[in-house]
Amino acid sequence: MVRFVFGRALSLFGVLFCVVTATFFLVHLMPGGPFDRERKLPEQVEAQLRAKYRLDGPILAQYANYLGDLMHGDLRLSTKYRNRSVNEILADALPVSATLGGIAFALAVTAGVTFGSLAAAARQPWVDRAVMLLALVAICLPSFVIGPLLILLLSFTIPLLPVGGWGDARSLILPSITLAAPYAAYIARLTRASMLEVLGQDFVRTACAKGLSNFRVVCRHALRVGILPVVSYLGPLAANLLTGSIVVESIFSIPGAGGFFVNSVLNRDGFLLAGVVIVYCTLLVIFNLVVDLLYGLLDPRIVLYE
Amino acid sequence: MSEDRTRFRGLPRAPIWGPAAVIAAMTLLAVLGPALLPAQLGDVSRDSFLPPGPGHWFGTDLNGRDLFYRVLLGAQISLLVGAAGAAISFGVGVTYGLVAGYAGGTLDSALMRIVDVLYAIPRLIFLLVLVSTLDPLLRRLLETSGLRAWIGYSKIMILVLCLGLTEWLTMARIVRGQVLSLKAHPFVTAARALGQTHAGIIFNHLLPNLLGIAIVYLTLTIPAVILDESFLSFLGVGVQAPLASWGLLLSDGAQAINPIKGYWWLLIFPALAMAVTLLALNFLGDGLRDSLDPRRRR
User: Fold this and answer.
1) Which of A78, A105, B40, B173 is deepest in the core (most CB within 10 A)?
2) Does the predicted model carry a pTM greater than 0.95?
3) How much is the ipTM here?
């Protein structure tokens, strides 16, 4: 077990090295530079800027230098948000995104699994139909439509909740619902499909024959196996949600990190992009590890390590 | 054994004909609508933000353009982008899955590893990098090769290409799985023993057998591509005005929602059009899968 976790932690460094390398050279290859403006900068100014952000000299030397800085935990200065280091920017914005993402994560998983198993186990076909229709609607509408629709309904028509902003707990409700909705819908579909399969298996029949109630059969016996496909989806989901969503954050004006991913690509802000990518990949690897450990816990037949 | 083995029922079949009719109707409207309606409805006029009424069924937008006309124009572009993008993803995904599944062994695991890695990258970021890298390149190419008339369409071409190039992963997985199971059948061994070439086996035996499922997932890729395009439009890298796509209309509509004056029609009508179409496509895909996918047949 310790060896397994340790091996995975080591592989994290391999993954990070690969993605940092890929990001660095991809940004270099993309047309346009970080200092391109409407009006072309005088040559000396641009040369000075390049020197300041250490983007001068041969590309391989730049890359080696950058790797050296990363080893010391220095993510460098952002070329877009002048004079602010990527470390500072991320330290400000990530906790905001992570809070919202954590709530949305919990919401998506609870709602998705509940509705999915309800749809699979319900005896009345209309429950299944209704839940699946709702899930499909949530998948078919982009979050920048769901968000404003919720605002229109719950902030303007019935003034219940604040439109946006960051600070008090009530302003978290609408954004976390908006953020969670498509993922909850996807999880509900996953759960339903896998539960339908599990509910047809022999051990479920046995459990029913023992005289257990439907609720107990579904929650104690079937769900434990049926939830496995959902669990394997949780790794990418957590990494996705915790690093923030540009769409939801811009609709509800939340000062999170979601915009950095997209804007750093558009601004050719390579160091900020690399910073976000590092955070994202670290989260992804960690959560995939947690998911694998959970797998072994839920289904003892799965052997992870010899 | 009785029909009802347990207390729980099996998979119900999703409907096919209803959704197919909705899609046909929407396509017809998109193709014929803008041609039959008076063209000045799409022009900028002074009647901005008129609520829905007899003159303008869906109201008008900021620039006084008729929203019904714009929604139909948007349908043209969105459906076109969706279909063309899905066609590209179909080609790439089927080829990739066929090669991986048929080759097997190291090549298979290497190819599928790549798919796993691409799955882990957030699709939106992948799309943004692709679009913002390829768009200037194609623009320059068109300018130098004397195809200046095409420059206006370069964005859409790039969008279709990039959307197709990011949406093929599921298709590749499905096709590969299918090929793996087909390969083990005696008829493939028989064909091989009779001296069929590998290409012959792929084209005469494997491809016809997996086309059904591939077409099912093609139906499910179209809504995914339309949805992706709408996110790109929201971020300002999708279809540009004066062209319209549902994504562009929706992101305009989302910005028009404010507490002082709720221009709700700018959001609701495009959202309805898009939701109905995407729902129908998804239902059609699910229905086709229930009846065509052997693993799901009960």
Assistant:
1) A78
2) no
3) 0.78
